[in-house]
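To start, an entry.
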Amino acid sequence: MKLDNESQKKFEEMIDELAETKLELLKQKGEKDKLLSMLMVAKDDKSKRIAELLLAKEETAKQAAEVLILQYILDGNIKNEMRAAELLVVKDELYIEKQLLEKTLMSIGDAVISTDKNSNIIFLNRVAESLTGWSMEEAFGKSIYDVFKIVNEFTKEKAEDIVKEVFLSHEVQILSNYVLLITKNKEEILIEDSASPILDEHNKVVGVVIIFRDYRDKSDKIKQIEHMSFHDDLTGLFNRRFYEAELERIDTTRNLPISLIMGDVNGLKLINDSFGHKVGDQLLVKATNAIKQGCRNDDLIARIGGDEFIVLMPNTNEEEAANVIQRIHTHSELEKINGLDISISFGSCTKTEFNQNIQELFELAENKMYKQKLYESTSMRNRTIELISNTLFAKSRRELLHSQKVSEFCEIFAKIMGFNAIKIKITKLAGLMHDIGKIGIDDIVLNKNGKLDTDEYLEIKKHPEIGYKILNSVKEFAEVSECVLQHHENWDGSGYPQGLKGNQIKIESRIISIVDTFAAMTNERTYRKTMSNKTAVDEILKASGTQFDPALVKIFIENFDQFEAV
């Protein structure tokens, strides 16, 4: 604490006077001690009485001195100096607290505006300056309503007066959602805020503190989450959750008749297994586009499953629903995916009476769709498998020539074995399709010049399973798919993918294994030279009983001239 010059001078004079008084008291104390000693040694009553009187005199003098000191201490001058010193201390403490409060408000991430009891601004922190466009110097003393202008996000009408509400209620007020702050530059900023009262010691509102923040990023994230919760991420259509909620809302008398259309994209699993999920996703997006183009603006379209779609149409009769389906078919015929037409099976049903159960209506539409799918899906899969074969052979002419030769060898072998016509056909087709699973193998691996590394070999080993999934999707190819799955199994159980052995392996697969190996050895490969027929036969003999069925190897060699003629 620092005193002014006049106060400092008076304070020093007071200290000097107190020091002199203390010295005088010390002298008096010495005299007192001397008199006490005289009293102790007094021999007669007269001397003792004199000593007592002198002691009493000194005691009176001491008390008089103490009274003088007390009066001086209580003198108004010293009291004023002490009060002034105390006020200076309090002033310093208040200044420190004010600085601490301002620094705190300036550093927080939310915008803060304070007003006095007349709603005039007395403080803005930096965030408030940034959001409102007003500096502290510009806003100080202005009405809060000149700086903090807020309107409804949608109506643009003046928002509720939360400052006034705080003065009336003496309580914290929260601003409703969808409020825009109009900045000094007329920019509109979506905000969220609250206002709190500033109370004095008598609980009287002497001002208001408004705390607010930029709500735009948070609002965008909330909208994004809401969109994700009711929309399909891939197609952008509504999802099952939204559809079910809307179904309850729409299922009223005023919306009759209500029609439902169920749709199922044909061949999605086959496309996924053959060309990968990326192409499958493209198929779904193209199907979505066709459905959207065929529907009306008020129709609700939702993806409710992997390949299933539904269209909910209020105030739509059966004939109008049929027209929508026809328009969708027209648009889908214009779409292709990897050269394949987009095929969607549909079923529809219409609710005409309020007492009809809407869920039963859904089941009726679904049943109709599945009946339609039985025909359309099979046709679609046949075309898809043909396309897959053509695509594979287009990727690698070597694969085409190899598969054709294996197919011919299989037919010869089946006839030698005495198979009936159906089994001969299955064996021949299995030979042609045995490597169809390679459609799912990367082109770089499939056409690599040189020997495959470990990872590439592991990828190639997946092709029997991929081929099985593709062919097994069509009922007519079910038996062929089993032959394809097992054509890399070995007689001794060392093959893949199932590790079957002996007669556990289908005989058609055991035949393919022999002729596939022979055809591969006698045709040029990037990683080795072509073998002669004799060398190839010797290699097959070496693997008899391990890789190959020894009985079939014997038949192959005994009838080799028929194979050699191909």
Observations:
- DSSP finds 23 helices and 13 strands in the chain.
- Confidence is low (pLDDT under 50) at residues 35-48.
